[in-house]
Amino acid sequence: MLIGSLQAEPDPSVGGAFPSPGNLTGRNYGEIDAAINLGRSLLNSGIFTGGVILGTLVFGVLAGYALARLQFRGRGAVFGLMVLVQVIPFQLLTIPLYVLIVRSYGLADSYLGMIAPFAINSTAVFVFRQYFLQLPQELFDAARIDGANELNILWRVALPLVRPALLTGVLITFIGPWNEFLWPFLITKQHDLQPLAVSLSNYLTTVSARAANPFGAVLAGACVLAAPAVGLFAIFQRRFISQGIESGIKG
């Protein structure tokens, strides 16, 4: 993909998989930027993804803590329903969600309309719950004896001990909204609100026919879209793996 994004002319042969000094150019990146405004599209993707991550962490931590440490009637049933939700494909919910978000709430062409359906991630809730269950009960009992309420216990006692879970929640959440196409495509009609994945699709269907090297430009945009995910994995790979191994050993 990277080599294709730097080719002046598309080379579909086997040799095209390798860089050729006479066929390398950076013009494709300038062309895709001029067509869809890469900076604005990246900003939209960042706002969308950041909002989803924030909602996932806030609601996931609260729900995971409640399911792990609070005693209430029906807790097991709630957890079972949460797990069951994970087997329902998002595509089955698209039409009712669209009617709810657009017609009932009037959130078409807005960041909130893009973020709302993904603000709660059941997988993240499950991860947080499992981490909270591993903490000693004595810590919570001591905090309650000292007069701390549940929010203080969560903030001062539980969260500092489950930092690996926060990193895990960010990593498992990031790639989904960053690459999401279907929902932003349905909810946004204004080009200046569309994430990069949607902008690339629009370019391929509307503008690429007039481009000198449309596939090179699309590959250039795809490289820009993939770069943050690759960078995030490269930065946190060692820490993420080591924390997973340590938690497995402690268990």
Automatic annotation (TrEMBL):
Protein family according to the UniProt entry: Belongs to the binding-protein-dependent transport system permease family.
Lineage: Bacteria, Bacillati, Actinomycetota, Actinomycetes, Propionibacteriales
GO terms for cellular component: plasma membrane
Record carries keyword Membrane: yes
Name the record gives this protein: Carbohydrate ABC transporter permease
Single GO biological process annotation from the record: transmembrane transport
Keywords: Cell membrane, Membrane, Transmembrane, Transmembrane helix, Transport
UniProt xrefs under Pfam families: BPD_transp_1
Topological category with respect to the lipid bilayer: Multi-pass membrane protein
InterPro entries: MetI-like, MetI-like_sf
Localization (cell): Cell membrane
Annotated TM spans: 47-67, 79-99, 111-132, 153-176, 215-236
Annotated ABC transmembrane type-1 domain residues: 42-236
